[in-house]
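ARCHIVE CARD
SHELF: 3
SLOT: left
DATA:
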Amino acid sequence: MAGLNTFSVGSGSSSNSKGGILPSLIRECGNVAVVRTVKRGPNVGMKFHGCPLWPDTKCEFFRWILPDSNAVDNLQVHVLEANTTIAEMEYEKKLLEEKIRKLQIKKENLEEDAHEMKNELCEMRIELMKSSRNERNCTMALYLSWVIFALVVFWLK
């Protein structure tokens, strides 16, 4: 990708034949217009310039790209389309990286929770073994007290 002029949402680098940014494609909102294609309706397939942040912005810039025979204009449209695709892919990549980061944090938190639960389980098992031992000792003490009571009652009679 070295040597490629990349385009990101909010800034741009579309050039005219003289090497500068097309002034008509820089919007009042400060963004460089991108090329979009109509996907539904009577104008399906037609291309137009629009704000790269649409529909999440109040910028309502819209301009049809009319088919003509000018090769330079056609190449500019192709460059803008490629830059638009790159910008969209970079934005999607950024969203996916953020999602991965959040999932990694969630995974780490779940691993910590699992480790804490294992420790609590071990502690509960130890307590259960202690209570089982205590129950056995109490049962033995109860039987022994009954035997002693029976002996005392037998001896007193």
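SLOT: right
DATA:
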Amino acid sequence: MTRYNPTRSLSLVLPWPPSVNRIWRAVAGRVVLSESARKYAVTCANALPTGPVDPLRGRLQVVMTLQAPAALANRCYDIANREKHVFDVLTRQRVWVDDSQIDGLMILRGTPQGAGAAILDITELP
């Protein structure tokens, strides 16, 4: 007998994330989140849907499209170091239980526009 396992999916549009190089700072012998990283976490939390939290609990596939700010349209920028802080924020906001659930990840470079954005399509795998 084949059992039907419905999957859940979620699409999110979040602000342009800071580079991983700007997330951590050493202050008085301790490593702490930078001011820009803390502000980004608050901005993301405000951009997420509100209501009862039922985090994704299964194995996940994530497609992240990074649309840089228009100001970066003619400059080189790295897309490979921007996902970690986004994923940490999504864990703290209970979108999923932990980013270790991600089995598949694709990061795409989108067209620069406006203030920039991180567009995520998250699918719970059957």
